[in-house]
Amino acid sequence: MTTYTAFDGHRRIASGPLPLVAGQCKSLLDEHSDAQPIIYDDTTGQSRDVDYRGSLQEVLGRLTSPETEAPVKRGPGRPRLGVVAREVTLLPRHWDWLATQPGGASVALRRLVESASRDAAPADRRRQLREAVDRVMFALAGDLPHYEEASRAFHRHEPERFAEWTAAWPDDVRDYVTTLATRAEGAE
After folding, report:
1. Is a pLDDT exceeding 80 seen at residue 109?
2. 125-143 pLDDT, tens per residue?
3. Rounded to 5 degrees, what angle do the CA atoms 77, 79, 81 make?
4. pLDDT band at 75 (very low <50, low <70, confident <90, very high)
5. Exposed, middle or buried, 21 (CB in 10 Å: 0-12/13-18/19+)?
6. pLDDT value of residue 166
7. Cα(39)–Cα(46) distance, rounded to whole angstroms?
8. Tens of pLDDT along 12-65?
9. Are 5 and 11 in contact (CB under 8 A)?
10. Sequence-ordered list of residues with C-beta below 8 angstroms from that of 137, at least 6 positions apart, any chain
11. Cα angle at 48 between 46 and 50, to 5 degrees?
């Protein structure tokens, strides 16, 4: 399940499932209309837009995520397989090889893509986690002292130096960025 973390400036508001975090942000905004909460996806580091207008139930009712979306009901008939036709440009020798494969070019290409995506999954996960650290660190700490040095230490896989450069950052920012960085390093 995807988790989220919300900040108001450099102060962490909440962490957890989206409805819980959005509810905490709504409460903060109800008490302090000048607050500017931002919710980050802990996996991607991307910010999540939430419409806080109305009651808490209305705010939560507008939330959609892969975990909260209802399955789409299908009508009678043959189920759609989700196949999308797009143009593929290959050299003649590639088309010649694909023509000799069992099932034809489409089946062979699907098999190749499945195999490549399965083989690349660990590297893709590491890259995604490292990009999340970059996004969050830039958004929360881009204006803090030693941001660039901390970023370089992170990308050089120097956790001790990273800790030194982030030591003076606000506790909530430092702890969150360190948690994401540790998760990314653990995926190596």
Report:
1. yes
2. 889 999 999 999 999 999 9
3. 150
4. low
5. buried
6. 97
7. 8
8. 999 999 999 999 999 999 999 999 999 999 999 999 999 999 999 999 999 975
9. no
10. 147, 150, 151, 154, 177
11. 170
